[in-house]
Amino acid sequence: QLQLVESGGGLVQPGGSLRLSCEISGLNAGAYAIGWFRQAPGKEREGVACINNSGESTKYADSVKGRFTVSRDNAKSTIYLQMNSLKPEDTAVYYCAAEGRVGWGERMTFVQMITIIARAAEYWGQGTQVTVTS
């Protein structure tokens, strides 16, 4: 049984930075593509970024491109989401999800890949709150 635990959320001012972590335990973390998602109050869950199992390929939502960076350290079974230049509209609960059955589509767009991860992910974390406010 795989477990995902997010951490690193908190309260930050606009323009600030946070680094979220998604720690995986239970199975081989390197076998799973990981997606980061967020859900703000009253809004639908949306994909933010995703990374393939090796960490060599990443994709991002247009709303975070250039500000967020997803990376992973499989030796530590941890995936990171570095968030810079944060905006109030980034306020949400952030989740990571692991998908190991469908595989990575290098030629897919971000929307295509994150949709697959959202639908096929076998494991989800409990979420960490990010609040951006002055």
Describe this structure in words.
It is a single chain. The chain is built from 1 helix and 11 strands. By secondary structure, the protein is mostly beta strands. The strands form 2 sheets. Strands 2, 4, 5, 6, 9, 10 and 11 form a 7-stranded mixed sheet that branches. A hairpin with a 6-residue loop joins strand 5 and strand 6. The chain starts with a strand and ends with a strand.
Main attributes?
mainly beta; 8% helix
CA-atom Rg in angstroms: 14 Å
- Strand share of the residues? 35-45%
Uncertain regions spanning at least 5 consecutive residues: none
Major sheet size, sense and barrel closure: 7 strands, mixed
Number of helices: 1
N to C succession of SSEs: EEEEEEEEEHEE
Shape: globular
On the 0 to 100 scale, the average pLDDT is 95
Number of strands: 11
Helix content bin: under 10%
Tell me the span between the first and last alpha carbons.
Answer: 40 Å
Secondary-structure content class: mainly beta
